[in-house]
Specification:
globular; about 80 residues; 1 helix; about 20% helix; alpha+beta; four-stranded antiparallel sheet
Length: about 80
Amino acid sequence: MEGRTVRHALPADALRVGETFRLYSRGREAVCELWSHREGWFLRMKIDGEPVREGSCGSHPEVSRLSDEWAADLARDGWA
C-alpha cells in the first residue's frame, strides 16, 4: 500500500476543510485530509504525518469514491 505513492501539486488556493477518514494500525495513524480549491477538491493521505497519496477530484461523488478506495486499501492491510 505505502509503496503506491501518488503525488499531485496542492493548488495554491487550497483550504483544508476536514478529513474523510482516520485509521490506525500497530501504533501508526493514517489520515485523509480534504482540501477545497476553486476547481474542486483535493485529497491528501498521510501516514504518521508523511504524505503517501494525493489526488484531485472534481465532484463530491469523486471525493467519496477515491477516499473509500484508499480506506479500503488500508483496511485490507489491517488498518481500522
